[in-house]
Write a structure and sequence with these properties.
The structure is a single chain. This protein is of the alpha+beta class and 259 residues long. The protein has 2 domains: 50 residues; 204 residues, Porin. It is built from 1 helix and 10 strands; from the N terminus they run αββββββββββ. Strands 1, 2, 3, 4, 5, 6, 7, 8, 9 and 10 form a 10-stranded antiparallel β-sheet that branches. It starts with a helix and ends with a strand.
Length: 259
């Protein structure tokens, strides 16, 4: 029995060394796995952060405040008439809104289209000591803007746009207010809808705009774009006494969402 004691001690020593070696090796394998998983997570986060707003497709929504005026001329045909008091009409502020989609053509160039509801208009005021007469005229249209866009930048982008807006006439509305020498006041509302013979069913306009977009997240940007819109053909039909072509300067505020 005494002779076996050295062999038992040697066996215990070898077993202890073996177990310690396994723990060390296991620990090394575990430490090698952690940096690998961490690197993959960092790469994934980096790729997500590097996603840019100027991707291939995006949807947009805008709301605008516009100052409208018009070019008004006498119709040179048999139905023409002098401008009279309409020559003294002034501009009118209106609100417009719309939405659409844009797609990348190549590099920084895009094309797009959408749907918008907008109003043209003018106003008139005549006032004396005991008399007042004024009106505000609004022409409502549904438009389908088609445009080409140049876009450059990342977090802060410059946007330049040119386009056409074929539009369908919806409604004409004129709000009149008056006061007579007897100090009696009153108001009148005049409405015409699509189909009235005095108005063109279809008008074509062009527009140019330039502004900036600020990236709020990897998917969303907020933009501000001043815009000038000009109408090519008359708002009125050929039998109307006047030729009316709208002009509008607006500031568009909107959001772009990257698809």
């Amino acid at each position: 029995m005494e002779k076996l004691k050295p062999f038992v001690a040697l066996l215990c020593l070898l077993t202890t060394v073996s177990l310690q070696a396994q723990v060390v090796v296991g620990g090394e394998e575990k430490s090698n796995d952690q940096p690998k998983e961490k690197d993959e997570t960092l790469v994934e986060l980096k790729n997500k952060k590097e996603r840019e707003v100027s991707g291939t497709s995006a949807v947009y929504f805008f709301l605008s405040r516009a100052y409208n005026n018009r070019i008004l001329e006498s119709n040179g045909s048999l139905f023409g008439d002098s401008l009279g008091e309409r020559a003294d009409e002034t501009g009118l502020k209106t609100v417009c809104f719309g939405l659409g989609i844009r797609n990348q053509i190549k590099n920084n160039f895009y094309y797009g289209g959408g749907l918008s509801l907008y109003n043209n208009g003018e106003s008139y005021t005549y006032e004396e000591e005991d008399t007042l007469f004024n009106y505000q005229s609004r022409y409502a249209y549904v438009g389908m803007p088609l445009f080409l866009e140049y876009n450059v930048g990342k977090t802060l982008q410059f946007i330049g746009t040119v386009g056409l807006v074929p539009s369908m006439f919806i409604r004409y509305k004129q709000d009149q207010n008056w006061r007579n020498p007897q100090n009696v006041e009153g108001d009148t509302l005049i409405k015409y809808r699509n189909g009235n013979q005095d108005f063109n069913t279809f008008v074509m306009s062009g527009f140019v705009s330039a502004g900036i977009a600020l990236q709020l997240s990897p998917y969303t940007s907020f933009y501000v774009k001043p815009e000038y819109r000009f109408q090519f053909n008359s708002s009125y039909s050929k039998i109307n006494p006047y030729i009316h072509k709208a002009r509008a300067f607006s500031v568009n505020f909107g959001f772009i969402y990257q698809l």
